Amino acid sequence: MRLIRRPPDRWRNLAQELGKFASIGAVNTVVNLAIFNLLLPIGPLKANVVATAVATTCSYFMNRHWTYRHLPKSSLRREYGLFFALNVVGLIIESMILFIARYGMHFDEHTDVLAFNIAKFGGLALGTAFRFWSYRRFVFGAHRPAVPDEEETARTSADGTVVGDAAR
């Protein structure tokens, strides 16, 4: 009976995290796109860097205090450092799409604003998928208590004595 209830709880928790993450993502997408469009005349890649930096900072605090508040906290420096580093990877994903739009397709930031917004949105979608996975895996979920598997706890040495957690 316990095994039957466990997967739905996991899926429900994951769905709740994903819903909160998506809500925060929607807010920060608006922030990101607003700053991007405001700064687009200075160039799409520069505008993307500034917009992403601002949205990243907002996103960190929202995710830490709402989406992942049920997980143990580690130091602000560690979490934000990892969060920011993983957002740099997300920024690179977004910027590659914008780079292709600007230099591969020769879009102009003054006349092809809609095309840049479509490219930006596509990059955001790919970057967001990476961010959800990486935040959960490395930033906010990294300090979950490890559940030892049965093989590790029941390991025995060559002479038959029990070693590891099972020896306690």
From TrEMBL:
Pfam families: GtrA_DPMS_TM (PF04138)
GO cellular component entries: plasma membrane
GO biological process, one term: polysaccharide biosynthetic process
Transmembrane region(s): 21-39, 45-62, 82-101, 113-134
InterPro entries (alphabetical): GtrA_CellWall_Glycosyl (IPR051401), GtrA_DPMS_TM (IPR007267)
Entry's localization field: Membrane
Keyword vocabulary terms for this entry: Membrane, Transmembrane, Transmembrane helix
Membrane topology: Multi-pass membrane protein
Family assignment from sequence similarity: Belongs to the GtrA family.
Name of this chain's protein: Putative flippase GtrA
